[in-house]
Structures are given as C-alpha cells and as structure tokens.
C-alpha cells in the first residue's frame, strides 16, 4: 500500500437544529445564525456545504486512487475493527442467550417482557442526547416527518426477536438455527433490489464459506446430540423461525440504510421509544399468564439485568459494523455466536466441545476474509444509495464520508476548522 489508512477522528456531537428544523440530523446540517443576518448566513451555509462536498470528493479520490493489492483492505484498521466488533456482538448474543436459558430453567419464560427493559435502557441513554442536539422543537419535527419510518424499523426488530424466541418453544434448536441462514438470504436479496448493492463473486464465495462453517458447527451438534432432540410441533416452530429470520433480515437492511443517513443516537432513541410501545403491548397480551407463573428472586433479577446489558451493548455497537461493513457482514459475523455459546456452555451448562468446533470457527473467519478480498480500500463503508461522493450520507463514525474528510484534512485539501463542525456521530 502506498499510504497507511488514517483512523477516523473522534466526532463532536451534532449541533442543535436551527429554528425552522431544516437541519436536523442531515449530513449537510450547519449551525444556525442570528435571524438578522439570515441572508448572509444562507450564503455562508451554501459555501460551507460546497466546501464540504468538495473535500469529500477530493478525499474519496485520494483513497480510491491508492495503489492497492487484493489483500490491501485486510491490512487496514477498518477490517480488523469489523472482525473485532463482530465478535463482541456474537458474545453479546451468546450472553443474552445464556441468561435466557437460565431464566427458562427456573420457569421464567417471558420473552417479550424481558426485552422491554432493553428498549427502555436505549431510550434512557439516547433520547436525552437526541433532545440535546436537536432541541425539543427540532426533535418533534423529526417525529412528524420520519416517525412512521422509525416505527416500522422498531416493529420489524421487535417481531424478529419475538418470533425467533417463539420458534424455540415448538421446534428443536438445530432446526431453529438452520433457519437463521434465511436472514442472510433476505439481507443479500433486499440489499441487491432496494439498496443497489452489487455483490462480487468473491463476496458470494465468502458468504457461502461462512455458511459452510456454520453447517459444520450444526453437524457436530447433531452428531453429539446436543442441538437436536424432539419437537413439540416442528412445522409450527419452523414457520415461526422462518418468520423471525425474515423480520431480522429486513430490519438489518433498514437499519443499515438509516444509520448511513442519520446520527446513531437518533436512530437508537426512536428504536427504544417505539420498541417500548410495541413490545409493551405484546408483553401485556402474550406474556400475561407466563408472567404470573414465573419465578421471581434475586437470581432472576440478576439474569434480567445481565440480559438487558448484553442486549443494549449489542444494539449500541451494531450501527458501527453496519456503517463500516454492511448488513450482510453483520449477519455473517453473528454466525460465530454458536461457537462462543458452546465455549460458555462448557462452563455453565456442562456442554462438551466437539473436535469440529474449531474447524467451524476458522471457516467462518476465513469466509469473512474472503468476502473482502480484492475489494475497495473503503470496504463496504461506501454505500451506493448515498449518491455521488456520499452526499446524502452522514459524516459519522465508520462512514466513508468521514474517512474522506479525514483524508482531505490530512493532505491539506480542506481547513480543519472549516469542516470539523460538520462531523456527525
């Protein structure tokens, strides 16, 4: 590589929306001025926006003009960050599954209710940040304009969680895990049709290699008899699992689209708010009887806290991998959750590790490496639906737009003080 990649700068918080709400959360938002200087401020804003667009264009040109090799992206900080964050997310999923299993063992089966705490914590963390940066008036304008979109995102997420958990009640774990592959299929198809993502042959091969690793993992579980077993109603369970995987796939693609265009704190705050409403209604309807017969003691409270913290960390980190990678990379990374689940299960539930498990894990990681072979130095962070020079995107952590701005600053193509105020979380 001719140049080493420049790590993304730590971004300041988004400035508050202006009086007419036109600036909220967009990539080209600028701080408002005094009303008496409105005409002059408008010209200055247009000039600043043009300067930012020119800086992004120059930065992207510099990044993409580097003398790269087929392995160049594998040597970047971004690639290893995607792998590391992906494994943290897998561990979060493993932790939440472990706490759910502990709750089920003592008879506390309340899947909708226990997830309600996660959405509440997301709201407590990210709503104040969103209100501070947008202002109450600006935030209300977002609700009117985009509230229905965030409601759909939350609905998809809640139903994905609910039906996947419900599937385990009727079918065996082996079948439920096999159906999770459908989420990857949904992501690839939806990204191709609606987000104009065009996958290269090497990327398809990488995804298939990851799925092959997951197949080895499931085969070893079936051989050991640890992941199969009888099913109460296999057809019904498989249908619920298929429905849950479909909701997951659609919500992952939708969230990738959102976090590439809007600040993360805005997306997560609305996901929490609408998640509380939707999940609360479901819990009151479907978990009412289970709630009354559940076991309640100190251990149960601790498991609920652990489950909530794992899931909240998962939701907080997911936008980063969706920006730096893609929804497909996100779902493929999560295939390693089963591996970590068995490792933790050996200590908690007395599972035994089959000799095929390390092979499965290596295959999944190798699939991730193959996915990024011969790709752009920007990986999947440059989104095709954001237009030329990513003009419709937010300059947030992990985005190609921020990387381009950092590159332009490094090479002196834009004054740091001129563009620094336009970074977005």
From TrEMBL:
<keyword id="KW-1133">Transmembrane helix</keyword>
<dbReference type="Pfam" id="PF06027">
    <property type="entry name" value="SLC35F"/>
</dbReference>
<feature type="transmembrane region" description="Helical">
    <location>
        <begin position="300"/>
        <end position="322"/>
    </location>
</feature>
<feature type="compositionally biased region" description="Basic and acidic residues">
    <location>
        <begin position="33"/>
        <end position="42"/>
    </location>
</feature>
<keyword id="KW-0472">Membrane</keyword>
<feature type="transmembrane region" description="Helical">
    <location>
        <begin position="70"/>
        <end position="96"/>
    </location>
</feature>
<keyword id="KW-0812">Transmembrane</keyword>
<keyword id="KW-0813">Transport</keyword>
<dbReference type="InterPro" id="IPR009262">
    <property type="entry name" value="SLC35_F1/F2/F6"/>
</dbReference>
<dbReference type="GO" id="GO:0022857">
    <property type="term" value="F:transmembrane transporter activity"/>
</dbReference>
<dbReference type="InterPro" id="IPR052221">
    <property type="entry name" value="SLC35F_Transporter"/>
</dbReference>
<dbReference type="GO" id="GO:0016020">
    <property type="term" value="C:membrane"/>
</dbReference>
<protein>
    <submittedName>
        <fullName>Uncharacterized protein</fullName>
    </submittedName>
</protein>
<feature type="transmembrane region" description="Helical">
    <location>
        <begin position="355"/>
        <end position="374"/>
    </location>
</feature>
<dbReference type="InterPro" id="IPR037185">
    <property type="entry name" value="EmrE-like"/>
</dbReference>
<comment type="similarity">
    <text>Belongs to the SLC35F solute transporter family.</text>
</comment>
<feature type="transmembrane region" description="Helical">
    <location>
        <begin position="116"/>
        <end position="136"/>
    </location>
</feature>
<feature type="transmembrane region" description="Helical">
    <location>
        <begin position="201"/>
        <end position="219"/>
    </location>
</feature>
<feature type="transmembrane region" description="Helical">
    <location>
        <begin position="265"/>
        <end position="285"/>
    </location>
</feature>
<feature type="region of interest" description="Disordered">
    <location>
        <begin position="1"/>
        <end position="43"/>
    </location>
</feature>
<feature type="transmembrane region" description="Helical">
    <location>
        <begin position="239"/>
        <end position="258"/>
    </location>
</feature>
<feature type="transmembrane region" description="Helical">
    <location>
        <begin position="329"/>
        <end position="349"/>
    </location>
</feature>
<feature type="transmembrane region" description="Helical">
    <location>
        <begin position="174"/>
        <end position="194"/>
    </location>
</feature>
């Amino acid at each position: 590589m001719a140049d080493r990649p420049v790590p993304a700068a730590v971004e300041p918080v988004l400035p508050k929306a202006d009086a007419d709400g036109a600036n909220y959360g967009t990539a080209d938002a600028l701080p408002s001025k005094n009303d008496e200087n409105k005409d002059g401020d408008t010209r200055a804003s247009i000039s600043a926006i043009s300067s930012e667009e020119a800086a992004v264009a120059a930065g992207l040109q510099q990044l993409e003009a580097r003398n790269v090799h087929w392995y160049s992206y594998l040597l970047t900080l971004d690639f290893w960050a995607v792998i590391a964050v992906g494994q943290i997310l897998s561990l979060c999923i493993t932790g939440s599954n472990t706490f759910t299993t502990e709750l089920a063992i003592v008879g506390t089966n309340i899947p909708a209710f226990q997830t309600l705490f996660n959405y509440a914590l997301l709201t407590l963390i990210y709503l104040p940040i969103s209100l501070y940066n947008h202002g109450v008036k600006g935030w209300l304008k977002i609700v009117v304009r985009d509230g229905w979109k965030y409601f759909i995102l939350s609905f998809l997420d809640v139903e994905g969680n609910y039906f996947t958990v419900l599937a385990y009640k009727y079918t065996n774990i082996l079948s439920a895990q096999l159906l999770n592959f459908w989420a990857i299929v949904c992501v690839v198809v939806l990204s191709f049709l609606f987000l104009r993502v065009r996958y290269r042959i090497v990327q398809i091969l990488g995804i298939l290699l990851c799925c092959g690793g997951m197949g080895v993992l499931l085969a070893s579980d079936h051989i050991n008899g640890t992941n199969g077993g009888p099913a109460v109603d296999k057809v019904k369970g498989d249908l619920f699992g298929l429905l849950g995987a479909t909701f997951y796939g659609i919500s992952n693609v939708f969230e990738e689209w959102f976090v590439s265009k809007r600040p993360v704190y805005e997306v997560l705050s609305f996901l929490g708010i609408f998640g509380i409403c939707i999940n609360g209604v479901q819990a009151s309807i479907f978990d009412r009887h289970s709630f009354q017969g559940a076991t309640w003691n100190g251990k149960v409270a601790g498991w609920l806290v652990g489950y909530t913290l794992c899931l909240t960390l998962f939701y907080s980190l997911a936008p980063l991998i969706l920006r730096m990678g893609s929804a497909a990379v996100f779902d493929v990374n999560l295939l390693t959750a089963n591996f970590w689940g068995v490792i933790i299960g050996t200590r908690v539930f007395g599972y035994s590790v089959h000799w095929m498990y390390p092979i499965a894990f290596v295959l999944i990681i190798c699939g991730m490496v193959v996915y990024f072979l011969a790709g752009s130095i920007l990986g999947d962070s440059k989104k095709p639906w954001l237009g030329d020079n990513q003009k419709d995107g937010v300059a947030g952590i992990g985005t190609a737009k921020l990387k381009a701005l950092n590159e332009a600053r490094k090479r002196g193509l834009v004054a740091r003080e001129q563009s620094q105020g336009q970074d977005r979380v």
